[in-house]
Amino acid sequence: MSRKIIIQVGDKIEVDLDDLKVLQGDLKELKPAREKALTDAILEDGFSSPFFAWRDPKGVLWITDGTQRKRVLVKLRDEKDYEIPKLPVILILAKDKKSAMRKLLKITSSFGEFNERGLHDFMNEAGIKPVELSSGNFVLPELDVPDFLHNHFDIDPPWQGNDTGAGNAEMQIALSTIKIKCPAKQKDTIVGIIKTALKNRKGVSIG
Known about the structure:
Elements (H helix, E strand, L loop, with lengths): L8 E7 L4 E3 L5 E2 L2 H14 L5 E5 L5 E5 L1 H14 L6 E6 L4 H10 L6 E2 L1 H11 L18 H9 L12 H9 L12 H12 L9
Parallel strand pairs: 2-5, 4-6
Antiparallel strand pairs: 1-6, 3-7, 4-5
């Protein structure tokens, strides 16, 4: 028998803007240029992407996708006198708040930029271990993961030779040497390309 994909999406509902609560806190910040881009998109194309939210046992709706859209809508309403109608929300299923927060980090949108202190606090509240950032559980391309782990968790990747605790031992499992197989005659060309791509990365060396 083939395996089934579990659907973790519930009903679609419509709610007032103020009924949606922000779950991610200061995890991401909306820089002025990106805020303008998102505002322009909403004004030009309308509100075409629904919110995703988790409903807690008390009935409170926590946004798992759409925090930046809410921030822009609040500004449009409070500062520019736009009327905001009821908004479409798709409910996601999660067993508790921590589970919902983990889902939020996996689907986090591209408009906001990570606030490292906010991400640190978010991870602590959600029970996310530092090693999970480098294990493939969360894909955060705009975040310099080694720098973040060093600055906020005092964890260094193994290539820096600073193995001073259990956290580092755990990281060495997740961050390992990458080996690339290629024809011998192409080795110098490929190594040159990789060195060029990584020359500005801190703590990276190529043997």
